[in-house]
Each structure stands twice: as structure tokens, then as C-alpha cells.
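--- STAGE predict ---
source: upstream dedup step, 1 unique chain passed
mode: sequence only
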Amino acid sequence: MMKYCMSTILAVALFIFAACSGGDTLKIGVLLPPTNSTSMQGDSERAAIDLAVSDVNKYFASKNSFKRVEAVIKDTQDDPTVIVNDFNELHSAGINMTVASLVSENLNLAQDVIASNNMVVINSDSTSPALSIADNIFRLVPDDNYLSSVMTSLFSSSGIEKIVILYRNDLWGTTLSESITTTFTANSGEVLASIPYDSQTYGIDIREYLIEPINTAITDALVSCDASKIRCCAHKF
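--- STAGE serialize ---
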């Protein structure tokens, strides 16, 4: 379902870009994650891009139009330096409209090159409130201030009074942790501890080296609070 929702949004964007283009073929830059721990996401987004391009080109053909769109796909390697180079290469090739799948940290580091090249970017993954600024980047997802409000409401309705926050140590995780701390404490909750984990750590590694600090924070809280009112709020993907 997500693949088809994404492809529909991209198809509309590609159609608008192509309709405004002076030439018959409009090349759109596409920055996707590599084949590693996020490969499932990369695969689904590649499928969404292929479907969107196919749908737009079929539509133009059905209207006897010579206009077409072409996706120029770049592998970001999940590396900020590569991402900046990708944007520069696309700009040098005359491609200034880009669809990207960049996490908040990487999008933030690419902001300067996007602005200096006056590029237009549609990004699918960045939710950090720190990126909610006036620029040429259009994000398809709401920022995490909304998520923080929802989480606080969930904790409150569940009788949760104290939380331990486990967060990814990058722009996304840091700003989400700060936002939840602000909304939760404003609602009379208490954050026992905010514990970061390395942004390149996945799966079982997270649980292994973070068990001790999480246990310590929760054990200390159990002296004065019932276990049913304490939760660990883990931010990870």
C-alpha cells in the first residue's frame, strides 16, 4: 500500500515538473538509500519511482504528447559526502529537480548545496522539526512535534508518569527526544533519563550495550513509583 501511495504522489510531482518543462524529456534526479540495513526501504522506493515514471509516461503517450520523464537514480551510500556530490553532479548535468529519500541528518547536511544550486527537492523521510524552515525542500511527512504530542497523549491516557527515552544519536533522534521531553514534562510527566545510541548501530547491538543504563534508570524509579507507570520510549529504525 505504501509503495502505491508513494508512487501516486511522485507521479503527480513528475507530471507537474514535466508539464512545466520546455523540452520533450525531463530528467528527474532520484537519491535512494543503498543496499544495506535499509535495503527494504530502498527497494520499495525504487519500485515506487519506476511505477511513477511509467504511469506519467503512459499518460503522456495516451494524450499523444511527446513529453516524457526519466529518472536519473543515484545511490547515496548513506554517506553525507556522497549525497552532496550527488546533488552537485545532478546540478552540473542540468538536473535541478530531485526526489530523495534522506534521513533528517543527511538532508540537513545537504541543505547548503541544495540552496546554492537553487534545486527543488521532494524528500520522503526527514521528520526533524529543525528542518521546518523556508527553503526549496518539500517533505512528504509531518515533523516530529506532531508525533511528540501523540506520544504524550498516549502516555497520559495509559497512566504513564515516568519514561526513559532511548534515542538515535543524530539530528532525527536528538530533536525527537527533545520534543518528547518538552511535551511530556509540560504534561506533568518525568523523563528519568535520555540515553543515546550510535546512529550506525542496528538490531541486537542496541539491546546489548544499552541494557545496563536502561535498567539503572528504571530500577531507581521503582523505589518511588509503581512499575505500571514507567515505560521505555525507544526511537529506532
